[in-house]
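Sharing a chain and its predicted structure for anyone who wants a worked example. Both blocks are below, sequence first, tokens second.
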Amino acid sequence: MIEITHLSKQFEQFTAVDDLSFSVSEGEVLGFLGPNGAGKSTTMKIITGFLAPTSGSVTVDGHNIATDALAAKALMGYLPEGAPSYGDMTTLGFLRFVGEIRGYRGDELVQRVGRVLAEVELGSVALQKIDTLSKGFKRRVGLAQAIMHDPKVLILDEPTDGLDPNQKQHVRELIKNLARDKIVIISTHILEEVSAVCTRAVIIANGRLVADGTPAELEASSKYHQAVNVRLTQPLELGGHLESLADVAGIEVDAEDSLSLRILAQAGKSIYSQVAKIAQEQNWPIAEMTVVRGQLEDVFKQVTAGGARRG
């Protein structure tokens, strides 16, 4: 388990992380979210021991990152944003180098390098110099070095940055497979990635925790949760038809398409069957009607309003 307790970090008069507390258990894939300057990268650098906190503590499987750093870091794999590497090395040479630093020799070194080359699909560029690789392949080399020692904790900062859609899907599946017996923390600005990969999401703004829950729980707090999207074939005023439905909170018309409307539901209420019944009775000119699960983007905007800052 990772336990973050009353964590704060100040740079002169600027507070980047402000009394932050949460824990992450084995098997969880935690999406760590926040607007630019919210304190995400600073928090991850503290968790991995690259920065010392001003106050508070981080423990990894019982090892305090400040007082027992070697034991804590030995449990972690880290993919920082813009992960550094040696450009004049080949992919294979760099991963062998990382493996040797980790203490592997002989057959074990060969097996571990071979495993990560296969897992991250780097075989086609194994003998190519890192400087000549695309941004996506460089990102995958960074991920490969992070999982070389089969760490108990995996800290990933924008792991799919620069990858094409197929590569993103592969890395997401890899992360889900790795998470079965690990703790994985992913810092990302791609909200779709949180829904696709993460079992839980923490959102911070101004260095403080502002939301914590599963993606489904956070989506359920969106004002669009259980809303009904309606696409008409011709203009129709729906307001009068829906007056009798107490669970309808309002109607929004698409600013760019007046034939596309969203019927909002009162919190937690399911209105699709009621709307469908009225639509049938009143013979609405409907091309399509669907239920909205909820929008993580809407929740993100709501809880981080005014949260962006420098830092």
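Comments welcome. The mean pLDDT is 91.
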